[in-house]
Design goal:
Blueprint: H1 15-43, H2 47-74, H3 76-82
Bound molecules: fe (ii) ion (FE2).
Residues 30, 33, 60, 63 line the site of fe (ii) ion (FE2).
Length: 113
């Protein structure tokens, strides 16, 4: 297992794996909070409260970015996955400059000519 949840009956996760599990759980909580604030914003008519909740929602988006970056610093596979935009066709992907000199894998070769 590479930084994933241990299977039932398996040995406990290493401290680094456990940290990543907690960070991913924290990330899920932040994403759920964004959705919850947005649902409340959409259903509240008071402009002052809407503005305050929008501010809080945007803070949660910052937390998502912070946790995402923290996960990428710890999990090199995740960092590799963030290095290129996987939402575009492979032939249109741009590989980050920091990834240019790394060993090639099947996945890292997308977007190269
Ligand atoms: Fe948060």
């Amino acid at each position: 297992m590479a930084y994933g949840k241990p299977e039932s009956g398996a040995m406990d996760a290493s401290p680094m794996e456990q940290l990543l599990i907690w960070l991913r759980e924290d990330l899920m909580g932040e994403l759920q909070a964004i959705n919850q604030y947005q649902a409340h914003i959409d259903n509240i008519s008071d402009p002052e409260i809407k503005e305050l909740l929008s501010h809080i929602r945007d803070d949660e988006k910052e937390h998502v970015a912070e946790i995402t970056h923290l996960i990428a610093r710890i999990d090199s596979i995740q960092q590799q996955k963030f290095a290129s935009d996987h939402t575009v066709a492979p032939e249109n992907r741009v590989v980050a400059a920091s990834e240019e000199n790394k060993a090639l894998t099947v996945g890292s070769m997308f977007g190269r000519k």
